[in-house]
Amino acid sequence: MTFQHLNFDQLSDLLDDEITDEVKQTCLRHIAICENCKHEYELLCKCIHLLNEAKNEALIIPDICSNTLALYQARKRRRFMYKAIPAIAASFMVITGVAFLSNEIFFDQGSNRISETHVMENDTQRIISSIRDADGRIIRMTESYIESAIHKKDLPKLEQILKGNNLKYSFVSTSGYAITSQKSIKNIEDADYKLGFQSEPIHRPVSPGANGSDKNSSIIRIFK
Amino acid sequence: MSKIDDIEIINRVINGEVEAYSHIINKYQNMVFKYVYYQFNNYDEALDLTQDIFIIVLEALPSFRQESKFSTWLYSIMVNHCKNYRKKRSRQWTVPLQYTRDDEEIEFQLQDFRENTEEKIVTEDSLRILKEEIGKLPEDFREILTLRDIEGLSYNEIAEILGIKLSNVKVRIHRGREYLKNRLHARGLI
Question: What pLDDT score does A191 carry?
Fold first, then answer.
C-alpha cells in the first residue's frame, strides 16, 4: 500500500471514515509520504468543505405553512369535484336517456295526433264535398261540426252521399229532420241528447230567412 | 423535536387536526427546500416544489407505516417527486422566471452574517460557482451528493431513501465527488 497510490474511492472512504482503523492508518501513513495522494486528498477535502458551506448557507424561505395548507384544502376540494364528475356524468346520462325515451313516446303520441288531425281534416273535406255534391251551402264550420243550408228534398241525397263516402255522421236539422249513421239516434231529441257532450247547443233558434235559408231549406249540422 | 414528537403530530393530523401539520412543515421546510433548490437551482421553482412535496406527504400520511424514521420517509417522497418533476420538465420548454419579470434578472438574497467582507465575497463567489457545477452534474451524482454532503445523511439513510444497495451508494458518492472535484479544480475554485 505504501508504494502504491491511493485511488479516489479510498480517499473518499477515508474522508467519510468508512474504513477500518487498520486501513485508515495505512492510508494516512501513505498520504504523509506521498505528495501526489496528499494533494488529491486535500482537493477532495476542499471540495467537501465547499459543499458543507452550501449546507450552512441560509436561504430565506417565506412562511409556507399557511399557503401549503390552503393549497392542500383547495386541491382536496378540486379532487372531490373530479370524483363527483363520473356521478354527475352518470346522472346526466340517465336523465338524457329518460328524456330521450319520453321524447320517443311523445313523438309517437305526436304522430298519432298528427294522423288523427289528418283524418279529421280528410273527414272535413269529404263532408264539405258531400254537402256540395248534394247542392248544399256551407254556412259555418267548427271543430266538431259543419253547418250548412240544404233544400229539404236534397236531404236524402246528402245522406246517401255521406254513406257513399263512408263517413260516420250525425246531423240534425232545425226543421226537425234527423239523419244519422248511428242507429241509436232516432230523432232530434236523441241527437240532442247524444251530441250534448259537444257542449254546443244543437237547437239554436233559427229565424226563417236567417243565414240565407227559406221555408224549403233546412239548416243542418253534420257532426264529425 | 424527536421522532416520537413527529409520530404524535402525524397521529393528530391523521385524526383530522390538519393544522398540526404546520409543525412538520416548520421543522422540515429548510431541509426540503435546500435539497430541491440544489436539484433545480431555481428559487421559485424550489419553493413551489417544496409546497407540493409537503402536500403530497400530507395526503400520504395515512399510508406511513412508521417502519422507518419519518424524515427518511419524507426524503424518499421528496427525491421521487423531484425525479418525476425533472422528467416532466424535460418534456416541456420553459422560460426561466428570472427573465420574465420586467427583463430584470432577479436573484434571491443570501443571508450571510459573516462580518469579514473579503471572506463574504469569496464565499458568495465560491457558492455561485459551486451551484453552477452542481447544476451540471449528472442527475444521480447531484442527487446523492446533495443528500450526503449538503444534507449530511448517512450512507444507510441514503440507501433507504433511494432504494439502492449500500455498495451502490458508496460507488455513486465516490464517482460524484471525483467528478465534482475535477470540475471545481478546473474552475480554479479548489
Answer: 47
ipTM tops 0.95: no
Query: Which DSSP category does B146 fall into?
Result: I
Q: What end-to-end distance do the CA atoms of chain B give, in Å?
A: 37
Given an 8 Å threshold on Cβ–Cβ distance, is B30 in contact with A61? yes
Indicate whether this model's pTM tops 0.90.
no
* Residue A138, helix vs strand vs coil: strand
Question: Collapsing DSSP states into helix, strand and coil, what is residue A6?
Answer: coil
**Residue B167: C-alpha distances to residues A44, B112, B171, B172 (Å):** 20, 37, 6, 9
Strands A170-173, A178-180: pairing is antiparallel
Question: Is-contact B10 B61, C-beta < 8 A?
Answer: yes
Q: Where are the alpha helices (DSSP H) in chain B?
A: 3-14, 21-40, 43-60, 70-90, 117-136, 139-145, 155-162, 166-186
Q: Answer for the pair A72, B13: CB distance below 8 angstroms, yes or no.
A: no
Of B54, B149, B180, the CB nearest to A68: B54
Taking a contact as any Cβ pair under 8 Å apart, which residues of chain A between 1 and 60 contact chain B?
Answer: 8-9, 12-13, 16, 18, 43-44, 46-48, 50-55, 57-60
Taking Cα atoms as reference points, which of A67, A63, A71, A69 lies closest to residue B21? A69
Q: What is the DSSP letter of B115?
A: -
Q: A64: which chain B residues are within 8 Å (Cβ-Cβ)?
A: 25, 29, 47, 50-51, 54
Task: Mention every residue, 6+ apart, whose C-beta is less than 8 A from residue B25.
Answer: A64, A65, A68, B54
Tens of pLDDT, residue by residue over A132-183, are 888 888 888 887 778 888 887 888 888 888 888 777 666 665 555 555 555 5
Contact B29 A55 (CB under 8 A): no
Distance between first and last Cα of chain A: 124
**Cβ-contact A220, A173 below 8 angstroms:** yes
